[in-house]
Design a protein that fits this description.
This protein has 427 residues and is of the alpha/beta class. The protein contains 19 helices and eight strands. Bound molecules: Double cubane cluster (BJ8).
């Protein structure tokens, strides 16, 4: 990426973007970013890369996607961790996460999905219907998955607007479910081969697997530093790194995150933190926070605590597990991919006790003083699973705060009051 200011309007126009609406949307980001990010003190210098990425959120990366397509590659949009990015890369595709983190065109979205649909789904529909997302407009294919009911039925409607392929994710993890899932991986490969016009080759999949693992390893390094006392990076900055991982160029992202990890490891060695050592440490668990949803982290950290980890799809669920790189045959590699992805612990599975263990392990390893369980409203799986997760966390001796929210600003005052009281209690 270069930092030369370029007018991207002609590119957006060609993609079919609603320019006035899009200008309005992009116009809101700088203030939001200023309030959530640029007011922080002592940020790692390496975060300058992410400042730049956000300033060009619909600019230079979109240009890269357009150039990639012009050179014969494909762009594939996804909404869930269970879609293996390695497969997309191995057929010359670029993967872009399409989950939206801001309210947009809800009136139009509510003509398709019920009002009481979670913000993540409603915003994704709103961004598509409002024609304000150049990532969605660049996608040659969108891959949906049978996770929650809201998403499952939304794919049928989204399929009226863009080519959608749905992969069937089982809801349990028995041997028969693993067999079903392995077959689904096979069928997904066939679809990707058809859309890309390229055969999946073992050598390409091996390279893609290593590259995506490297990305996750870099995030592991960065996040391991958050166990230090005082924390060397804010939760907001760590969250942003994972949010950007869903759509940035993989090798460049890996390099930049490793640079930040170098800096953080030095800070840890020097005992340098972004907060005073006595700042309460909070682990967040629950539904994902898509860019630019920085609401809860900002509230928690403005209340004087520091977020030291996220047991979320925009957190540890994304980077903790790697695909086994040892298989040499295509079949073996696809087995390894099936195993790794089925091992993610989302609340759409039953039972999902492994997620509770993950929360407890992270709370212990990151030296959290308390846990916040945040769910998007109307997310039945996470809101219900909060009961057993919170119970186990309390039994382990951690105070818990449960928050149900959405993307609006309306509840910020009320959430702040509750979070401030919780943080005070942790002191
Ligand atoms: S692996 S968390 S990305 S499904 S918040 S849309 S579950 S009603 S986002 Fe998710 Fe994949 Fe699971 Fe992760 Fe439905 Fe809930 Fe909305 Fe959700």
């Amino acid at each position: 990426m270069s930092d030369t200011a370029v007018d991207h309007h002609p590119m957006w126009e060609k993609l079919g973007i609603d320019l006035p609406a899009h200008d309005m949307l992009l116009g809101a980001i700088p203030q939001l970013y200023q309030d959530a990010y640029l007011t922080q003190e002592g940020r790692p210098q390496g975060m300058a890369y992410f400042d730049f990425v956000v300033s060009e959120i619909h600019g230079l990366r979109i240009k890269e996607l357009v150039d990639h397509k012009a050179a014969g590659g494909i762009v594939v949009g996804t909404f869930c961790l269970y879609v293996p990015e390695e497969l997309i890369r191995a057929v010359g595709g670029l993967n872009v996460g399409l989950c939206a983190g801001a309210e947009w065109a809800y009136d139009e979205a509510e003509c398709y999905v019920p009002r009481n649909t979670c913000a993540l789904i409603k915003a994704a529909m709103g961004f598509k219907l409002g024609k304000v997302c150049p990532y969605a407009e660049s996608a040659d294919l969108v891959i949906g998955e049978t996770t929650c009911d809201g998403k499952k039925k939304t794919w049928e409607l989204l399929g009226e607007m863009v080519p959608v392929y749905v992969t069937e994710l089982p809801q349990m993890k028995r041997p028969a479910d693993r067999t079903l899932w392995r077959g689904e991986i096979e069928r997904l490969v066939e679809k990707l081969e058809e859309v890309s016009g390229r055969k999946l080759e073992a050598a390409a999949l091996k390279t893609a697997t290593r590259e995506v693992n490297d990305k996750r390893r870099a995030l592991q390094r960065l996040n391991a530093c958050r166990a230090a006392h005082p924390a060397p990076i804010s939760g907001r900055d760590a969250l942003l790194a994972v949010q950007v991982a869903f759509y940035d160029d993989v090798p460049r992202f890996t390099q930049m995150v490793n640079k930040i990890a170098d800096e953080l490891e030095q800070r840890v060695a020097d005992g340098v933190g972004v907060v005073p050592p006595e700042a309460p440490r909070v682990l967040i668990t629950g539904t994902p926070m898509s860019i630019p949803n920085w609401k809860i982290h900002t509230i928690v950290e403005k209340a004087g605590a520091v977020v030291v980890g996220e047991e979320q799809c925009t957190g540890s669920r994304y980077y903790e597990k790697l695909v086994d790189e040892s298989p040499e045959t295509l079949d073996g590699m696809l087995d390894a991919i099936a195993d790794k992805y089925l091992d993610i612990n989302c609340a759409c599975f039953t039972p999902n006790t492994a997620r509770t263990y993950d929360v407890l392990r992270l709370a212990r390893d990151l030296h959290a003083d308390g846990v916040i369980h945040q769910s998007l409203q109307f997310c039945a799986t996470y809101q219900t699973e909060a009961t057993s997760v919170d119970r186990a966390v309390k039994q382990a001796g951690y105070p818990v705060l449960r928050l149900d929210t959405d993307y609006s600003d309306e509840d910020v005052g009320q959430l702040s009051t509750r979070v401030e009281a919780f943080v005070e209690m942790l002191r």
